[in-house]
Design a protein that fits this description.
The chain contains two helices and no strands. By secondary structure, the chain is mainly alpha-helical. The radius of gyration is 13 Å and the shape is elongated. The two termini are about 15 Å apart. The relative contact order is 0.23.
C-alpha cells in the first residue's frame, strides 16, 4: 500500500476538484489550494517512493 500513497493523493486531489466544480465551490480559494497541495504532494510522494523502490 505504501507504493501507492502518491497515486492515492493525486486521485483524491483530482476527485475533490471535480466535486468542487459539481458543487459550485470554485469561488473558495482555500478549497482549491488544498486540492492543489494534495496533487503536488502526491506527485512528490510518488517520485520519492519510486526512487526508493528502484534503489533497493
Amino acid at each position: 500500500m505504501k507504493n501507492y500513497a502518491g497515486i492515492i493523493l493525486i486521485v483524491l486531489g483530482a476527485l475533490l476538484l471535480i466535486l468542487s466544480y459539481i458543487a459550485d465551490m470554485t469561488d473558495y480559494n482555500w478549497y482549491q489550494l488544498i486540492c492543489l497541495l494534495l496533487i503536488i504532494g502526491g506527485i512528490v510522494t510518488h517520485i520519492i517512493v519510486s526512487k526508493k523502490v528502484k534503489s533497493e
